[in-house]
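To illustrate the input format used throughout this study, we show a single complete record. The first block contains the structure-token representation of the backbone; no residue identities are included at this stage. The design step must infer an amino acid for every position from geometry alone.
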């Protein structure tokens, strides 16, 4: 399951603003978007990823994505970064 990639990653960024910045800087290797996240939050980021060629993986829930990131709250988006 794709949550394992998030759990095993040394460096992750969580949150739309942070992840957007990582994609713009070219250090995001893969972006994870929660299926139940508000599309108004994620749509621009997904478009940016398509434009820049960063793979986007849709995961089931914000709660599980947050858990995989090691945080107590849900995460709409997260990225594995190369830094």
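Output of the design step:
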């Amino acid at each position: 399951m794709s949550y394992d990639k998030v759990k095993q990653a040394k460096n992750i960024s969580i949150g739309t603003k942070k992840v957007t910045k990582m994609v713009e800087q070219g250090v995001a290797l893969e972006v994870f978007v929660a299926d139940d996240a508000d599309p108004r939050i994620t749509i621009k980021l997904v478009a940016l990823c398509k434009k820049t060629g960063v793979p986007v993986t849709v995961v089931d829930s914000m709660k599980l994505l947050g858990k995989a990131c090691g945080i107590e709250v849900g995460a709409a988006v997260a990225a594995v970064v190369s830094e």
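Structural context for interpreting the output: The first helix runs from residue 3 to 8. Residues 66 and 74 are 4 Å apart (CA to CA).
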